[in-house]
Amino acid sequence: MADIDVKIAQWKLVEVGRVVLIRRGPYTGKLAVIVEIIDHKRVLVDGPSTEENKTVPRHVLPLAHATLTHFVIPKLPRAAGTGPVKKLWEQNEIDGKWAKTSFAQKTESTTRRKNLNDFERFKVLRLKKQARFEVQKTHAKIRAAAPKA
Q1: Three-class SS of residue 126?
Q2: Cα 46 vs. chain centroid, distance in angstroms?
Q3: Cα–Cα distance, 63 to 39 (Å, whole number)
Q4: Whose CA is closest to 9, among 99, 89, 75, 72?
């Protein structure tokens, strides 16, 4: 038989040091790192973010309430305290890397859109209308310049 080399996706592994996005509960939308694996359904997480409003205290989190990210804090010892976790979090610049992801940018723009007042929504509508008009004008010029068949 032929030798088959099967490679698993490494970023989908639940491991100590894996950064997760919390999807449910009081810390929804915040990042935390897996500090210890309790069992096949629960992990101990700690989120020492550099931004004050994004910190997550150490607690047990069901894996059903977490989304694994691509980010891993390497060499994080099992059951490390909040101090070493915070130090490695800042060293690996997790907050900066997360802010650059498309998921974080999309989430931030949707929350900004949700928090607009009536007049700001009106301004967005007018700007979209102006942009659409400019695109249509340019498209009309291109069509007029094209040779007729």
Answers
A1: helix
A2: 17
A3: 10
A4: 72
- The pLDDT tens digits of the residues spanning 10-60 come to 667 889 999 999 999 999 999 999 999 999 999 999 999 888 888 999 999
Question: What are the CA-CA distances from residue 137 to residues 116, 124, 147, 149 (Å)?
Answer: 30, 20, 18, 22
pLDDT digits (tens, 9 = 90+) for 57-104: 999 999 999 999 999 999 888 888 889 999 999 999 999 999 999 999
For residues 32 and 20, the answer to whether their CB atoms sit within 8 Å is yes
Helix %, strand %, coil % of the chain (to 5) = 45, 20, 35
Alpha-carbon span 45 to 62, nearest angstrom: 10
β-bridge mates for residue 20, sequence order:
32, 68
Three-state SS at 140: helix
Both tokens of 31, joined, read: 């990042």
CA–CA distance, 100 with 60 (Å, rounded to integer): 28
Supply 88's token pair. Answer: 């490695």
Is pTM beyond 0.85? Reply is no
Please tell me the distance from the alpha carbon of residue 88 to that of residue 48, in angstroms, as a whole number.
10
